[in-house]
Write a structure and sequence with these properties.
GO terms for molecular function: transferase activity. This protein is of the alpha/beta class. Helices cover about 30% and strands about 25% of the residues.
C-alpha cells in the first residue's frame, strides 16, 4: 500500500511533506517520494531532508494508491506529466491530494469543475481555480470525492488524517 508524494526539487515546504508522511506511515502506508531530481532534497525551512525514491518521469500510477503533491512553489503548475498523473489517479478512483499552493493543480488537471477545493489564498492560485471551474472554499481541508486539498502547513496534520480516512474506507 504505497502513496506517492511529489516534491519540488528546491524549496518544498518541510511540514507539508513531513507531517502527512508521518501520519500515513503511522497508519501503515508506505510513502514513496518523487521529484524531478534524485537524491536528497532539503525543505524550504531546512528542517527536513527528503530522499527521492523515483524520478517523476518514471512514475507509473498503477503502482500507487494515491498521489500527494506537496506545496512550496508553483513548479508543477501546468506540468504535463503531473497533470496526466492527476487525471490517471482520478480516473482510477485513487486519491489525488494537494496542499498549499499546489492545491491549484487538481483544478488545472480539469478534475474540479463545479467541485469545492481549497488552496493557499494566493491571487494567482485563486484565479487558476476559478478559470478551471473549481469552487474555492476558505477551509483548512476540503474533501471532494477522491480529491483532498489543504490550504497550508497549519493544516498538514488534518490533511494527513483525511488522506488516511480516504485510503482506508
Amino acid at each position: 500500500m504505497a502513496v506517492l508524494f511529489l516534491i519540488v526539487p528546491n524549496g518544498f515546504r518541510d511540514e507539508e511533506y513531513a507531517v502527512p508522511k508521518r501520519v500515513l506511515e503511522e497508519a501503515g502506508f508506505e510513502v514513496v517520494t518523487a521529484s524531478t531530481l534524485l537524491g536528497k532534497l532539503r525543505g524550504k525551512k531546512d528542517l527536513v531532508i527528503a530522499r527521492v525514491d523515483i524520478a517523476l518521469d518514471k512514475v507509473n500510477s498503477a503502482d500507487y494508491q494515491g498521489l500527494m503533491i506537496v506545496g512550496g512553489q508553483r513548479t508543477y503548475w501546468h506540468n504535463a506529466t503531473v497533470l496526466r498523473l492527476c487525471r490517471e489517479f482520478h480516473a482510477a478512483g485513487k486519491l489525488v491530494a494537494a496542499i498549499c499552493i499546489s492545491g491549484a493543480i487538481p483544478a488545472q488537471a480539469g478534475l474540479m469543475r463545479g467541485k469545492q477545493l481549497t488552496v493557499f489564498p494566493d491571487v494567482d492560485a485563486l484565479e487558476s481555480i476559478r478559470q478551471n471551474g473549481g469552487i474555492y472554499v476558505n477551509k483548512p481541508v476540503v474533501v471532494s470525492d477522491n480529491v483532498i486539498t489543504a490550504d497550508g502547513p497549519a493544516a498538514a496534520e488534518e490533511f494527513g488524517r483525511a488522506m488516511v480516512k480516504f485510503l482506508t474506507r
